[in-house]
């Protein structure tokens, strides 16, 4: 472990991701759960970039790029399904 | 500790504060739209500063060691930041529009301008 400050920052960001996961579990409506998943994706990208700096591995940051783009496609697909098809 | 270390600590602190504020705002707001507003704005701003901290760290290590893998780390972090900045607001907009079209109304709202626009009324 090269830089421990990035590791502890990633741990605290993951605590925030756990709070977003609680909204996914206990959300009273479907859009609440989608908002929770969207927040979770953003926090996971931040945590992956911080872990890539902490462990000195650039490949984690590349995976964060791909995760950001794929989670965007997933969010758009869920939103289109929720509003009742393509219009 | 050099001045660059203090800059990295300041950026990481801003990142932690705003990401935790975004997570708490999911639990402290009454309906979908206010939760989306708080969570998306705060986590986007916090993630900008996380990536900036990584870029400053990588640039400092590149200055110290001259290893080209730190240049790669900084550039790929900036690509991740650009991808997140382009996709996060458009995803939030799509979620809000889909929630309104599927019948979830804003709680405690007096004026719903999008509902008036859908009915063909005046702006």
TrEMBL record, chain A:
One of its GO terms (molecular function) is sodium:proton antiporter activity. It comes from the Archaea. The keyword Cell membrane applies. It is found in: Cell membrane. It holds the Pfam family MrpF_PhaF. GO terms for cellular component: plasma membrane. The keyword Metal-binding does not apply. The chain crosses the membrane at residues 6-26, 33-53, 59-82. Keywords: Cell membrane, Membrane, Transmembrane, Transmembrane helix, Transport. It is a multi-pass membrane protein. Signal peptide: none annotated. This is Cation:proton antiporter. It comes from Thermococcus indicus.
Automatic annotation (TrEMBL), chain B:
InterPro entries: PhaG_MnhG_YufB (IPR005133). Keywords: Membrane, Transmembrane, Transmembrane helix. The keyword tRNA processing does not apply. It comes from the Archaea. GO terms for molecular function: sodium:proton antiporter activity. The chain crosses the membrane at residues 6-26, 38-58, 70-87. Pfam families: PhaG_MnhG_YufB. This is Cation:proton antiporter.
